[in-house]
Amino acid sequence: MPAVARALSRPDLPRRWRLLALLALLLFLPLAARGQEAQDKVVRVGYQKYGTLVLLKGKGLLERTLKPLGYRVEWAEFPSGPPLLEALNAGAIDFGSAGEAPPIFAQAASPRLVYVANEPPAPQGEAILVAKDSPIRTLADLKGKTIAFNKGSNVHYLVVRALEQAGVPYEAVKTAFLAPADAGAAFSRGAVDAWAIWDPYLASGERSTGARTLASAEGLAPNRQFYLSRREFADANRKAIDALLQAIGEIDAWAKVNTDAVAAELAPSVGIPAPILTVALKRLSYGVQPLDAQTVADQQRVADAFHRLGLLPKPLTVADAVWKPGS
User: Fold this and answer.
1) Is the distance from CB of 214 to CB of 131 less than 8 angstroms?
2) How far separated are the first and last CA of the chain, in Å rounded?
């Protein structure tokens, strides 16, 4: 409104016109402020190289969905769930996804974390691998052996459950806490006896090393993917959260029936050939949904297992971190 400001500065302007100009300026300022505020609203999304959120980023669907609500989107890539949720707790991002174990540790670190939604279980998407000629034939044979896995990840819980089922104390195995790339290298050269890993690294490891699956998560761990936010962000941006979940649902529906196209799209960023990714994608589950009682109970079992092992400083109540849409 430069013209109004110039008019107000004119000493020869009649008093009636000066008052009208001042009224116009007063009416304009709140509108301008609201417009600026709308332009400044942002959703910062943390994603990994594999999964629904990276597809959402590639399609630009979230930007189109949130723009009418006055939001823009910023994206941040993370190598795995634990650092992504550390960033979420720290306020560096507003929304992201991770497997079942990282949110447990994140909730222990901060009451700000909330579960917003989840995908159905995909137990075939993670497994414990051994070399094809390994003498390890059963889970009980892991006693005294070295298992490589990412600390605090979903496969950490898989290892815990697998050892429980086999009657092997957690302390009776040696753990090598390694990120997927380092764990894969150690497994390939025989520096560790077993490797607990998730897709698509699971599919890649099976193909590149000829590894044998000692046990998948079937019957041991659900292997769900969760969508998470901070309580204050979710409460203050309910329409944005609804739009996010709507966009994720649309991508899920497309990915479920376009496996080959998804594999081709992800291959360059993941660094894994499309045919191998196709194997991994067929083991995924699709259909974003709110957490139900069974999901909360399953997560509580994860929390209780880690607390029994002394990996959590105090007991957790998972239900306390479940966000209630519309409340």
Assistant:
1) no
2) 40
- For residues 211 and 213, give the distance between their C-alpha atoms in angstroms, rounded to a whole number: 7
Contact of 79 with 179, CB cutoff 8 Å: yes
Full DSSP string of 250-310: HHHHHHHT-HHHHHHHHHHHHTS-HHHHHHHHTT-----B---HHHHHHHHHHHHHHHHTT
Q: Which residues contact 181 (CB under 8 A, 6 or more apart)?
A: none
- What's the alpha-carbon Rg for the chain, to the nearest Å? 25
Distance CA 192, CA 177 (A): 11
DSSP 112-176: TEEEEEEPPP-GGGEEEEE-TT-S--SGGGGTT-EEEE-TTSHHHHHHHHHHHHHT--GGGSEEE
Non-local CB neighbours of 22 within 8 Å, separated by 6+ positions: 8
DSSP3 helix / strand / coil % (the chain, rounded to 5): 55, 15, 30
Cα separation, 124 vs 97, in Å, equals: 19
State the residue for tokens 């301008």: 32
What's the pLDDT tens digit per position in 90-106?
999 999 999 999 999 99
At residue 22, does pLDDT exceed 80?
Answer: no
Residue 50 pLDDT: 87
Q: What one-character DSSP code corresponds to residue 245?
A: H
Helix (H, G, I), strand (E, B) or coil at 179: coil
What is the model's pLDDT at position 35?
44
SS3 category, 222: coil
Element (H, E) at 9: none
Cα–Cα distances in Å, from 302 out to 102, 121, 169? 10, 14, 17
Model pLDDT for residues 112-149, shown as the tens digit of each residue: 999 999 999 999 999 999 999 999 999 999 999 999 99
Would you say residue 33 has pLDDT above 70? no
| pTM above threshold 0.90 | no
Q: Which residue shows structure tokens 């209780």?
A: 304
